[in-house]
Specification:
With 67 residues, the chain is mostly helical. The protein has 3 helices and no strands. The longest helix has 19 residues.
Amino acid sequence: MSVTEQYILDTYRAQRLGEPAPPAPGAHDWAVVRELRDHRRFRAAVAGRPARGRIRSAAARLLRTRP
């Protein structure tokens, strides 16, 4: 069963039971990405690592060490 079919089935069930409809698939994807980014920054800050620019500095380190 695809995501769209499951969503249609859940919407139908919610309508029959008088409940609010579930959110559409993908409706909160960007919010999840932002929360994940914030959580990773928080964990880095708690661990004493820089919270920003970690990927860029790691890439720069890799490029400097190559012959």
